[in-house]
Write a structure and sequence with these properties.
Chain lengths: 160, 597
């Protein structure tokens, strides 16, 4: 992965967040949550800053980032698409919906399209099982999605 | 307080919010305001009603009218007809699918008739963002009683006598857990609420936190009083933004009222509650992993003993209970252990909340007494199988559980009976499957889940489950060999016996349980190269029967990959090399001209 140089104010932002949690190592997960919500993702360079601030090793930070599925080291697309792969959605055909998204956007799970407009992810149960299968694009929730609806959903965001 | 003549309760759970219940609320408020009725009619966004299949739901009090599948466009009619003229909007009432009768009062609906609500008692009744409404329904009464009238020993005895067992899945007696933690001497102890609901398809903990957060806070304070802890932590999934938001509001309000914080109700008892966020790791539902995650570490489990009751968060004695377990506590203390222990079976007291989902007519959240049979749950409450298909199996206990078949329909559901039938209670997810679900694929689906969630610490789980998955994948591809089914069984037993924690020890359960109930289906894949349920794509082939095809071009127009060709009014043809076996043509054809083999 090419190395990126963090802007000075980004570094400051990370430092401020760490400080908010008193630079405590035990607050690592809370720090990561905050930083990701501000920056969108947690590339290696960001992890290095966090490790330094919390006086722990980069390996430990990396270990935690990669352990939890909520944290990502890859930037998400402008319109992050999540397909619920909870059991309720699965038995109501979520896999076919996922395959259709992959086919239409020509990307795999965890990847973004070349133009950066879309990324696909799977998530485990949003708890709206009455609406299965469920797809979320950003904050918007689509219920009872069939493979034939996929084209329409993508089109809604294409020209944004 | 304003004396409202009418209340409109709108479900504000995650499911209904996804179907625009916020917009419905806004429009209602606006219209009611425009008509100058704001002092007489109150609109309340509540927690989950449970009947998610028919959401969004509006309940009108005092007449108890129950509207289903309401859209923002229905608001004008509800206000003009029902509120102004007093005539219910008939077309929005629930229609009983069996009698085809419209039912106005939810109490008359089969979905609610057999339910007893203890943990969910306030969900769908109160505004979860208003502590006064919780207090009006006996809220914080139990805490007050404990602090002023009862000793910790007396409270623990009451909880023990009630027979309450852990609702997170383990079924460990709650009172006993409290007693053990109490008896460990230490200057600092913790109460932890496990809200890391990871079982895909189970959403009761989220619904309780969204619909009745104070019940959990109250119970945590009571637990703190009993075990001698002054600090409580709620470990909640970051994926539940609404529950987090409502918990934060609830904690703030309870602090303002002096029901949480220092010197609660002037009794000298201190108890503070903080939130800790999970970050998407199923294994963190296991209590030792959860504790490590709260400490900012990878959520890897460690050997027990020592149990968290002895050495938990930051090495201090920690009592970990699940959300639903806590939600039972205030009710038990208000109504008494004797009342509670009369509900349920001999060894499993009280009720259990189940998230009913999958191929069932009434998807939703239900709470039934222990001992209710699966048949009652699926057919009476759940309204039977979707699209008139045949019931095949129900998976309970999520990825750690197993499936139950037709033969188990009349078993009274409790912890022990489910274990004896090869499944488990788990957190209460119930996924119903019909004849079109392939059991090999279901087992593969769960293994895929376990693989992703395995923390990788111990070899049986990390490597063994991978091998199990590969075997299952091979079978669903039609490449299975004779000995593969035996291999699956042997490997499953080894993993069960040798894995480090609950995740690994239970991960082969879906495999073992589907083999023991549906071995013929595995054999059909291996011996005949067929998937009886018609789900395994590699084993499917769609063809058009020339004689039946009218050349209507419907399949041609709907095929997403252009695999179908043919002239108008002439038989069409599927190019097998292009076909992705999505089945759209099969569903769309009006002349049954497409075969699936």
């Amino acid at each position: 992965m090419p190395k990126i140089k963090l802007a000075e104010n980004t570094v400051q932002l990370i430092k401020d967040i760490c400080k908010e949690f008193e630079n405590k190592e035990s607050e690592l997960i809370n720090v990561l949550h905050q930083v990701q919500s501000k920056l969108g993702y947690l590339p290696a360079e960001v992890q290095e800053v966090i490790a330094k601030e919390l006086k722990t090793s980069v390996a430990k930070v990396y270990g935690v980032v990669t352990f939890y599925s909520f944290f990502t080291m890859i930037p998400q697309g402008e319109n992050p698409i999540s397909i619920c792969m909870g059991t309720a959605c699965y038995v109501r055909g979520a896999e076919q919906v996922l395959n259709e998204f992959k086919r239409q956007l020509k990307v795999e799970v965890g990847e973004s399209t070349e133009d950066g407009k879309f990324s696909i992810n799977c998530l485990r149960c949003v708890g709206a099982c009455g609406l299965a299968p469920v797809v979320t694009v950003g904050e918007k929730v689509y219920g009872r999605v069939a493979p034939t609806d996929v084209k329409k959903i993508i089109a809604e965001y294409k020209n944004h | 307080m304003t004396d409202y003549k009418m209340h409109l309760l709108i479900c504000g759970g995650t499911g209904c919010k996804a179907s625009e219940s916020d917009e419905i609320k806004n429009r209602l408020n606006q219209l009611i305001g425009d008509l100058g009725l704001a002092d007489e009619v109150q609109v309340v966004l509540t927690g989950c009603f449970g009947f998610c299949e028919k959401g969004p739901i509006i309940k009108v009090l005092p007449d108890n009218t129950f509207y289903v599948q309401v859209t923002p466009n229905d608001v004008v009619e509800i206000v003009e007809e029902h509120i102004v003229k007093g005539r219910p909007v008939k077309r929005l009432l629930y229609t009983d699918p069996n009698s085809a009768e419209q039912i106005s009062d939810s109490k008359g609906m089969d979905f609610y008739k057999k339910q007893i609500r203890i943990a969910l008692k306030n969900c769908g009744f109160i505004n979860p963002e208003n502590i006064d409404e919780y207090i009006a329904r006996d809220g914080y009464q139990a805490l007050g009683k404990c602090l002023s009238e009862l000793t910790p020993e007396e409270v623990i005895k009451e909880v023990k006598d009630s027979g309450l067992r852990g609702r997170g899945g383990g079924g460990f007696p709650t009172g006993l857990k409290w007693e053990i933690t109490k008896n460990v001497e230490n200057d600092q102890k913790y109460v932890v609420c496990n809200a890391d609901e990871g079982d895909p398809g189970a959403f009761m903990d989220r619904s309780i936190l969204e619909g009745d957060p104070h019940s959990v806070l109250e119970a945590m304070a009571i637990c703190g009083y009993c075990i001698g802890a002054d600090k409580g932590l709620v470990y909640i999934r970051a994926e539940y933004p609404l529950a987090i938001q409502r918990l934060k509001i609830a904690i703030k309000q309870a602090e303002e009222y002096g029901l949480i914080g220092d010197d609660i109700l002037g009794t000298g008892f201190n108890f503070h509650i903080e939130l800790r966020y999970g970050a998407g790791a199923f294994v963190c539902g296991e209590e030792t992993a959860l504790i490590h995650s709260m400490e900012g570490l990878r959520g890897e489990p460690t050997f027990k003993p020592p149990f968290p009751s002895v050495s938990g968060y930051m090495g201090k004695p920690t009592n970990v209970n699940n959300v639903e377990t806590f939600a039972n506590i205030p009710v038990i203390l208000n109504k008494g252990a004797e009342w509670f222990s009369k509900i349920g079976t001999e060894k499993s007291k009280g009720t259990k909340v189940f998230a009913l989902a999958g191929k069932i007519n009434n998807v939703g959240l239900i709470e039934v007494p222990m001992g209710t049979t699966l048949r009652e749950v699926i057919y009476d409450i759940g309204g039977g199988i979707k699209d008139g298909k045949e019931f095949k199996a129900v998976q309970t206990g999520g990825p750690s559980g197993g499936c139950l078949t037709k033969d188990s329909l009349d078993i009274p559901i409790d912890y022990d009976n489910l274990l004896a039938s090869g499944s488990m209670m788990g957190s209460g997810g119930m996924i119903v499957m019909d004849e079109s679900d392939c059991m090999v694929s279901i087992a593969k689906f769960y293994l895929d889940f376990t693989l992703e969630e395995s923390c990788g610490k111990c070899t049986p789980c990390r490597v063994g489950n991978k091998r199990l998955y590969e075997l299952l994948d091979k079978i669903t591809q039609g490449k299975g060999e004779e000995q593969d089914i035996e291999k699956l069984k042997d490997l499953s037993v080894v993993i069960k016996d040798t894995a480090l924690c609950g995740l690994g020890q239970t991960s082969p359960n879906p495999v073992l349980s589907t083999i023991s109930n549906f071995e013929h289906e595995y054999k059909a894949h291996v011996h005949d190269g067929k998937c009886p349920a018609g789900q395994c794509k590699s084993l499917l082939r769609y063809d058009i029967v020339e004689d039946l095809c009218t050349g209507c071009t419907l399949c041609f127009r709907n095929c997403p990959v252009g695999a179908i060709s043919g002239e108008r009014r002439a038989p069409h043809f599927i190019d097998q090399t292009l076909c992705i076996k999505c089945g759209v043509c099969f569903e769309k054809c009006k002349f049954n001209a497409i075969t699936l083999t």
